Amino acid sequence: MNIEKIIKEKKGTIIDVRSPEEFRSGNVMGSINVPLQEIPRRMEELKNLSNPLVLCCASGGRSGQAHQYLAQQGIECYNGGSWLDVNYYQSQTL
Predict the structure, then answer these.
(1) pTM of the prediction?
(2) Residues 6+ apart with CB under 8 A from 73
(3) How, if at all, do strands 53-57 and 13-16 pair?
(4) CA-CA distance, 34 to 38, in Å (whole number)?
(5) pLDDT tens digits along 4-50
(6) Which domains, ranges and CATH numbers included, belong to the chain?
């Protein structure tokens, strides 16, 4: 599925894997902050969110790591890359 389409159609959940400090400095409206290092212990919470998960961070590196881990756990997710890109897609309308 196309990440832009998922975001524009408000399907799934946007997860920002940056640190709480980075998240507070700017984030995608409606996104949830789950820092990369907290993902393993917050698996139950992540499993209960609306899928697919769209993962974002500062540049796409950490969200790529999160994607790899979550996909191995059987969670439908996509690496959205930079939160700024995800924010831009969300600001667009179909």
Answers:
(1) 0.95
(2) 43
(3) parallel
(4) 6
(5) 999 988 899 999 999 999 999 999 999 999 999 999 999 999 999 99
(6) 3-91 (3.40.250.10)
